[in-house]
Amino acid sequence: MMARYKTSVAPVREALAVLSGAGLVVSESQRGFRVAPASRVDFQDVAKMRIQMEVCALEQSIERGGDMWTAEMASIYEIFSRLSPTDSANKLITDAWESYHREFHFSLISCCGSPTLLNFCSQLHDRYDRYRRLALPSYIPGTVDSHGEIMSAAINRDSRNAVLRMRDHIETMSEFVLRQYRN
Known about the structure:
The protein is mostly helical. It is 69% helix and 4% strand. The chain has eight helices and two strands. It has helices spanning 2-5, 9-21, 40-64, 67-82, 95-109, 115-135, 143-155, 159-178; strands at residues 25-28, 32-35. Strands 1-2 form a two-stranded antiparallel sheet. Strand 1 (25-28) and strand 2 (32-35) form a beta hairpin. The model has no long low-confidence stretch (mean pLDDT 86).
């Protein structure tokens, strides 16, 4: 692996330790590391916690966010909503769409005022996204629309509606993912 990435052991171990801390890799004593197993139960737990943490961060951001927050959110959404979610060859979700999707979600919660909460949201988003990518490598129509509805409610300071739409957005995607996991 070190030859492949032209690096020494230290950065590889550090990266694996970070991935282990994020729940994406499992450290095995005297054996090294392996990819964390994927299961329906784990995904359900991750989805439940993601909803709780993102909703909390969204509510706080709506309370605390100012004009710069709404402008940043709208700017990211404008780019995100114009991107083609899939490539034309095999209909897989593009890296650009994935990147702006993540950036948009974090623009919604960026003003929560808690670096710790944002860190938890980031870890949960990564773990959730792992399952979504494994189960649904293709785009699900309608997801950009739900993002716009969440953003509009947040900009209008309608915390109740924004929270309901965020919950619905994550729950709907979770249902798609869960259909792919039988274990």
